[in-house]
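Hey, I was hoping to borrow your eyes for a little while. No rush at all, and the record is pasted right below.
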Amino acid sequence: MTLTPHLAAPPQATDPRPAASDGRRAALRRAARLDALLDNPYDPGGAHGFAAFLAADRRRRPVLSAERLLADAGLAAEFVPARHGGGLTRADLLMKVLRPVFRRDVALGFAGGVTSLFAASAVWAAGTDAQQRALARLLLGGGRATVVHPGLAPAGGIRREEVTARRTADDTGMLVSGGKDVIIDAARADVYVVHARTAETGPRTHSVLLLEGARLPGTSLQRLPRVATEGMRGAVFSGLRFTRCPAGDEALVGRPGDGAQLALRMNQVNRCLVAGAATAALDPVLRAAVHRATEGRTGPPARRWHRPLAGVFTDLLVCDALATVCLRAVGLLPDRAHAPTVAATYTVPALLTDALEELSALLGTHSGGGLLPGILAKLVRDLPAAGLGRDGAAACQAVIVPQLGALAQQSWLVEEEPGAELFCPRADLPPLDHGALAFAGGGDFLAAALTGTAERLGRARRAGGRIALLAQLAEAFLTELRQLREQCALLPGQFGEALSGPAACALSDRYGLIAAAAAVLAVWEGQDGDDPFLADPGWVLLALSRLGRRLALALPDLPATCTTGVLDELLRRHLEGRGLDLDAAALTL
């Protein structure tokens, strides 16, 4: 957006990079190519359409032809850093490439390569050059990798489904034992990235091992039968059991005891990436609602459709804004991105789940026949299985809550605002460096951005109209941040006793919604005017109003033109076959 004369520009970075859209344009071209190869998802006879994925889901089988298509299209290269011959440069661009896949089937996104990325990210971050080159060759050659996460202790505190690695008697290596019953792609993976317990107590109890299946003695590795799961039935889940499996010291990724830190550092990218890509999964449901609302009408939909259609569309834009800025930040601000990015990993799924429920209530989960009931039911099962449900949110909130005290005391309202290029969609950014990602203690760039934007809008209130209204909403969220700061400043520090239970969830929920509001304002302020809809404050007002209601903020009523303007854009994109995200790219429909 070209800033109005009433708004001063946000601060520039100390080393501003020239605006460059080559990377973004190339990613959108690759996304469009995948979209075209997968063909029209609404074709009832199509091999890769919604009907085919629903049929495979009922049979609990993967759509192997779609997996082969993605492999032949070179999707695996997207998960390999460019320095090793792949196409991975930035996380936000990878999200754009993955959206055509997730729009058709969440399980296909994992089977098509995201599982390999989850496994490989620890190697990209801490592996030796030899480990990285070997894994890159395997993935680029069509191989698969999976990750064996550490087992979680149940409420009773007894560990289960755990893998251990103990030093051999002659101290020449390790012996790996134990296993897990439910691992995605365990039966098909060539390489296993195993988080194994290497110490009994202390903060460094787990280490990461890179094990190649073909090199392991046959008696030391047992591949367990496939496991039926309620969600993501098109993915292949099974188990692994290690029995005194030998592993040399060259299998160690990073240092002994690095496992927990590596997992926490990589999860901020991986989980946020999946959450952002999964916003595309709601595309067919919202389009079905638009079709239902406009069917047989020459004019706009009946008034009862206006608020829910415009609201859900706005929520998808909010999700995209939050995921996008966080995934851009992991490249530009790898030491300051952790807290907001973890917040995105539970806030985006919560917004998506609520949007799905709103659409389900609007459409009726069992009405109308056709593909819609199956798509709705499948999404309700698939999102939690992809880590986008309550269990996934609880895991992320457990990570963020211990940080709130330190953020309140050291970052909020005092941290320097990030450079403008972070929020400018066409600005060039440095490539993602997994090894530079930090865990905790690095500040909060979105809280700093909210502070700066609210101050600029406050100075512009005299302009009146919607800018004044936007300034009022921004100030309401800044006030909420101040109140959250006062409450969280009383919490123990990062390494103190963590708050738990409903009170912890309430604080983390509030923080996530404030981060979402900050992202929306920053994305709007970063527009360069090429997209009149995104440059207009109407969608931002509606977005902040919906987020504010979740926080029970006292907010002013919005002009009706905010809803009608967003609805008009939704109808236009539906008619023209364009995406329901910030890019609004043409889709294969």
